[in-house]
Amino acid sequence: MMFDFNKTYHRVLETELKAIVSLLSENYEVFCTACNMILNCQGRLIITGMGKSGLVGRKIAATMASTGTPAFFVHPGEAGHGDLGMIVKGDVVLAISNSGNSDEINVLLPVIKKLDLPLISISKNLSGRLPQEADVALTLGDFEEACPMGLAPTSSTTATMVLGDALAIALLEARGFKSEDFALSHPAGALGKKLLTHVSDLMKSGEEIPLVTGNTSIIEALFEITEKRLGMTVVVDDKNRYGVLTDGDIRRLLTTNQDMSQPIASVMKTAPITTSPDIKASKALDIMRQKKVNQLIVLDNDALVGVLALRDLVQAGIN
Predict the structure, then answer these.
(1) What is the band of 190 on the pLDDT scale with cuts at 50, 70, 90?
(2) 46, 119 Cβ separation under 8 angstroms
(3) Which of 218, 211, 253 is nearest to 235 (CA)?
(4) How far is CA 247 from the centre of its chain?
(5) Is there a contact between 167 and 38 (Cβ–Cβ < 8 Å)?
């Protein structure tokens, strides 16, 4: 007889969904108080929790830190053996315990009080020592765990994580936190690269720019293209107007038996597509895609300052 996994799947999701819905009737005014307490914090938000609550606490701390609220996780067991020294006056403590009676956290409460640190708790109800001693007590509400034995933290950890997300996003919005701020804490990620990298960071400049005059022969221009390895050369005429000749252009000229000794000005593309060194590299990529080109001339106040190549964008992870 095959086990009915589908039945379990729906039961677990429905049970945990009820736990999330129960939050709607639990915490509005208390939630606002907790947000203001963290928002006015002069130090860091210290999050602690034991076991599964601790794992959820680590996630909440990571979300807070990446969305504008300085936060880090302290293991309550390690805190009782020296790590409590990382917590200083001005910090706010957020302690998570489903029962509200975690021994490891209870040991810390006298020290937290002695340091006069504001304490926010997250627990299922208000019956434990932790919520009773907290300055702000957030509760999860009355619901069943998805575990059929009611033992493994399932619905409770889901509800705690959702409550942590609500705190983080409320604080994000209250701070006016924007995508550019998010990128500053994610410089190695795709979003960080997209928002922080500008054309000036990736363009070829100075001697790296393939550059010839309008009187240069096509064959000499080919040598410049080959040497600078950008697949093109910028052309400047005697009136300081810019043009472009690509290696693809030269290949097409060869198929039509053009005189390769003639001046490049006679075959170059005029009015080339340009960009500014100050725009975001992702915007320059959009221009390349729209115009179907692989290089852009970079001008600053009509002066040539660089060339941006598609391959450099790809290598930098801009997409």
Answers:
(1) low
(2) no
(3) 211
(4) 38
(5) yes
